[in-house]
Amino acid sequence: MKITVFGATGGTGRHLVQQALTAGHHVTAVVRDPARLTGPRHSGLTLVTADVMRPEAIESALSGSDAVVSALGPRGRDAGNVCAAGARSIIAAMRATGTSRLVVVTASGHVVDAGDGFASRVLVKPLLRRFLRTGFADFARTDEEVRASGLDWTIMRPPRLTDGRRRAYRTAVDLNVRGGVTIARADLAHAVLEAIDDPATVGHCVSLGY
User: Fold this and answer.
1) Which of the chain's termini has less CB crowding within 10 Å, N or C?
2) pLDDT tens digits, residue range 96-155?
3) Whether 187 contacts 166, CB under 8 Å
4) Packing angle between helix 133-147 and helix 82-97, nearest 10 degrees?
5) Domain annotation for the chain: domains and CATH numbers
């Protein structure tokens, strides 16, 4: 499978690229600074230097791709709308190139649903919304952009990310994972790759946690 990855130099993106290559996929990593993608080069890896916010600049990276993954994430509490703006640009480029499969990583923190326990609904998430207001608003706008895209989309909703080792995790479709307060970036990357090839996740949100 040919996979185009945005946010390839981020914590989750690095795991995603490595796991995809190990699994035998061809990966096109779209980056602004190739030097930030560390590690040995792989024959299945193509680097494209481009600004994700310019749809015309990333179209060539999408041509021929079977799936596109956005692992873009805010850097700092006041990162603005990088995820939503990036998703909007990626969607425009996908429409221009006829690429249809899109997997986007946002988060579970800005969503309250029946999967959340009492403490999460009443205490934890209201506090998180106060301190992470900008980032959560960006994730919410990203969700809206993706849902309205008309593409074969899946939204991945992880809880707080860690750098822990891979282990067994739980997933839920269109529902937060009860008690799933953390997930390792390596496990999130694994879940993204699983979702790409699972038609049952198209048009749905996949939450995960331990």
Assistant:
1) N
2) 999 999 999 999 988 888 888 877 876 667 667 666 778 888 999 999 999 999 999 999
3) yes
4) 20
5) 2-209 (3.40.50.720)
